[in-house]
Amino acid sequence: xxxxxxxxxxxxxxxVLRDKRTRFILIIPPIVQMLVFGYAANFEVHLVPTAVVDxxxxxxxxDLISRFTSSPYFDVRRQLDNSRQLRDAxxxxxxxxxxxxxxxxxxxxxxxxxxxxxxxxxxxxxxxxLITSSYVTQIATGFARDYQLDRIGRIDPQxxxxxxxxxxxQRPWYNPDLRSRWFFVPGVIGSLTLVLVVVLTAFAVVRxxxxxxxxxxxxxxxxxxxxxxxxxxxxxxxxxxxxxLIALVGTLWFQVPFRxxxxxxxxxxxxxxxxxxxxxLLISTISSTQQQAMVTSFFFIMPAITFSGFGxxxxxxxxxxQYCTYLSPLRYFLVVLRSSYLKGVGMxxxxxxxxxxxxxxxFFLGVAILRFHKALD
Amino acid sequence: MxxxxxxxxxxxxxxxxxxxxxxxxxxxxxxxxxxIFGLVGPDGAGKTTTLRMxxxxxxPDEGSxxxxxxxxxxxxxAAKHALSYMPQRFGLYEDLTVDENIRFxxxxxxxxxxxxxxxxxxxxxxxxxxxxxxxxxxxxxxxMKQKLGLVCALIHRPRVILLDEPTTGVDPVSRRxxxxxxxxxxxxxxxxxxxxxxxxxxxRCHRVALLHQGKLLFCDTPANLKSRLxxxxxxxxxxxxRRVRGVLEQAAGISxxxxxxxxxxxxxxxxxxxIPEFQALLAAAGVSFDAMQQVAPTIEDLFVDxxxxxxxxx
Lengths: 377, 314
Known about the structure:
The complex is a heterodimer.
Chain A: H1 2-18, H2 20-40, E1 48-54, H3 59-69, E2 74-80, H4 83-92, E3 97-101, H5 105-111, E4 117-121, H6 126-155, H7 157-162, H8 180-211, H9 213-218, H10 224-253, H11 262-285, H12 290-306, H13 319-325, H14 329-343, H15 347-375
Parallel strand pairs in A: 1-2, 1-3
Antiparallel strand pairs in A: 3-4
Helix pairs in contact in A: 1-10, 2-8, 2-10, 8-10, 8-11, 8-12, 8-14, 10-11, 11-12, 11-14, 11-15, 14-15
Chain B: E1 9-18, E2 21-31, E3 36-40, H1 47-55, E4 62-67, E5 70-71, H2 76-79, E6 83-86, H3 98-108, H4 113-126, H5 142-154, E7 160-164, H6 172-187, E8 191-196, H7 199-202, E9 207-212, E10 215-220, H8 222-228, E11 232-237, H9 241-248, E12 254-260, E13 263-268, H10 271-285, E14 291-295, H11 299-307
Helix pairs in contact in B: 3-5, 5-6
């Protein structure tokens, strides 16, 4: 039994390692993708291109604009003359936000009235628009408050010292600087591994079917279990290697802290890889060519990533979709990854995720093996 | 050769349907040790389906298969050590070398160490491939690939060998190597079941089964089969055999017409009597020919005659 399995593994690794292109595919693209995703997958908003129309030309309006100019969130690159130009700038994408200060802005402030600041946001990307608006609110509120204090201070400096206020003491745990990269890098590790292992496993088996070796092997005394193990173990080992590689790049390059226990992450990775092997094997049983396997893989990969909470929070999905997310093993692996990296919690907290992945692994592998028997006829 | 106890292969009432097609229907035959048995028929006659059922990779709807005394339908695993199955395209790993392919299949059959080395050296020698051991299988010619497939299929000294059109697309030199290896095996008492669409190759077999649309037409030695025709064969050699056939198709009393190379074979009742008539017909049509003579029937003549139902061509 082990001699035959060993020979299967030797054969698989010769095939993988002999081909320059395969060697390349297993190492370089995962690293490059990790780097690209690490930089690209980011919710932070910096230097939003901003256009300004100032009809007031007052000390106050210039003061307000300068607060935007000096903010790291805004890039005030256009000072325009009229509303039409502002509209064009937003239409063409030259500016994502437009500020319009009407004539009489300073006058109203002086009279103690509410002075309007028109803010036009390009909300094509609703998320960015929301974040940008909140930055505008912060700056406008700060400006108003400083102006109020200034006015009160001129009347009675003592009142200023007695003004009550609430002081916020925000303590964002696990990610004090609220870096979205810390949230995304562990997620990228999970999704890259998912794509890699599913495609690798599906292709490994389908290729044997395509070149006719599958039928040949089935007339040898090798057991189906041995064959399946011989085909999936290499994908498993390569998957484990790639998880480590991607995780190293994420940790060392992007400086995402790893606070948990490496063995907890390892246990999670093993369970996750097993479920992905099951899915890959299942795909191989319903595909007779590599092209079919490719297309079928994408039918799995897209929803599996969407339903994992990789980009969109599961809690905001409609209830019936939230039920679907329970079927995506990545959903649980992402919790294990993020918790291991940022929270540093262990098995006492992560066992439900581990159990769910174990259950899904058994399910996918079980169905795949059952189907595999039938698919040979 | 055909005693039940000694038979290497016993097929009884084998039937298998695919959606819309009866691929194999109530097929029964036996093959003895040391016998080359040919399964002959055109594409779609059910040869591959039969071989796959014998190899245990496809289950029959009905019927039984005994290979080396083991019921393949009930226990496909048990027959595997005694059996070797070589599909039309043997599954080789093109990115592995000749040696690595052999080693892989040897290990799957549990052939190891010195035994594996001597056996593979001997087979490679017989196949004329000793100097290609380190070459990638993908870089071999079609004939070489097929011979490598045979080497891999024989590495575990099977007692029963199933070959599916083994020499299709193989060059004449490799084909000769191929048959030499098969004859050596037969001398050792191995039973060989081979399918072929080449009727000339069928003459190399000890016995031949003619298959048509999943049914067995005849099963006998090539010599007996030929004498079964019960009719004469008239051969017309011409530089334009198609036109000869065209003219003869108009003639009455021809049971079947076969075009092979530069010859047209006409199956008729009394060959010598028809010669003057045919000569006149061809002359009238202005078709020239080189020779017209009675020849011994071939298996192809029998097959075509049987398939066309012995009906005269219109």
